[in-house]
Amino acid sequence: MNSCRHDLVRLVERLDELGALPRVAALHLPQPAADGTRDGEFCAVELEDGSLGLSFVLLGDTLARLRGGDAAALAGSSSLALARCYEETDGAQRALGFAAVNALTRHLFARAGYAPPPARGSIGDLDLVPGDHVGMVGLFPPLVKQVLATGAALTVLELRADLAGAREGWCVTLDPGDLAACNKVLSTSTVLLNDTLDDVLSHCRGAQRVSLIGPGAGCLPDPLFDRGVTLLGGSWIVDAPAFKAALAAGVSWGAHARKSAIHRDDYPGFEQLLERASVQR
Q1: Residues 106-138: pLDDT tens digits?
Q2: What's the domain range around 83?
Q3: Do residues 156 and 171 touch, judged by C-beta distance below 8 A?
Q4: CA–CA separation, 64 and 190 (whole Å)
Q5: How many domains does the chain have?
Q6: What phi and psi, each to the nearest 5 degrees, are found at residue 49?
Q7: What is the helix (H) or strand (E) element at residue 157, kind and residue range?
């Protein structure tokens, strides 16, 4: 089976069926003033039509490499060529490629007249009840109490060995196989960039619900839904100029975006969106 990254890029490549795609207008990077805060975790690729796509930049030396590169050189380049970099092994190139994938997804959604519905809650719309066993991929400290308060059991999958071990009422594991015992799974969208996505999802096949959430989760959900994800939750930018100004100033941009949630059962699908966009040409 192909990787999810491979399938995402192949879908994005089909957008050339709509005709000439908007080229890259700019790369927006978080300012050093935001280092160490949540406001410095994402970059954004902007296309000539105003579409913006986010990508997480705190894996390895990605942010340092992007700051040390020539961001201005991206202006006017092919957005599709940049999106293909999502399949690269180089972390900085992959981050740029994913941002371009997200920007082209936003372009398609706009052309098709589709906007993801707003999220209903902060726990991935999992509708937790006593007796549920939640698998959390990536430790979300603010959400641990929320999960436990519902009466659900909690197993957290982490890459950091120093976090592993039992806690009061929950545990942290390094073994993705432990997710097989969970009937509901909540995952950070970082798995879209750190080479763990396909392996993690392979252990979630028995889960009733699998929610993948995070500001960077702005890609086409089809390959994820095909692999068992039931909800993709991201950040839908509602005021692009204000968002860009906040990112440039190193301050919070949350007020200029809303949390979105695409449910597998309610999503029209790539083929229908492509057809809608084609009609609007």
Answers
A1: 999 999 999 999 998 778 789 999 999 999 999
A2: 4-117+238-256+266-279
A3: yes
A4: 18
A5: 1
A6: -90, 5
A7: strand 153-157
